[in-house]
Amino acid sequence: MSRPPSMLAERSRQRGYSPEQPAKQAEEAELGWLAAWADAWSRFWFTPTDPLPLAIIRIFTGAILTWSCLVWLMDTDAFFGTRGWLPPAEVWRMNDQPWQWSWYFAFGSPTAIRVLAGITLIAALLLTLGLATPLAAWIALLGLVSAANRAPLNTFGLDDMLGMLLVGLAIGPSGSRLSLDRRLLAAEQGRGAVSARATVALRLIQVHLCVVYFFSGCGKLFGVTWWEGVAIWGAAANGQYRTLDLTWLAAHPLTINAITLATLFWEVAYVALVWPRLTRRLFLAMAVAVHLGIGLTMGMMEFGLAMITANLAFVPAATWRRLLPNDRPSPTFLTPRTDLA
Amino acid sequence: MPATNSCLFAGFRMPATSTQTFPSSGRVARAVSSVGILIYLAAVIIAPLSGPPPASGLAQVMLQPFRPLLGALYLGHGYRFFAPDPGPGHSIRWEMSMPDGSTRSGSIPDATSDWPRLLYHRRFMVAEKIASLVPPADAPPEFRALARTDWLPLVKGVAGNLLRSQGGSRVTLAMVEHYLPGPDEVLAGTIEPDMVIPLGTFAPAESLRP
Question: Is residue A210 within 8 Å of A271, Cβ to Cβ?
Answer without folding.
Answer: yes
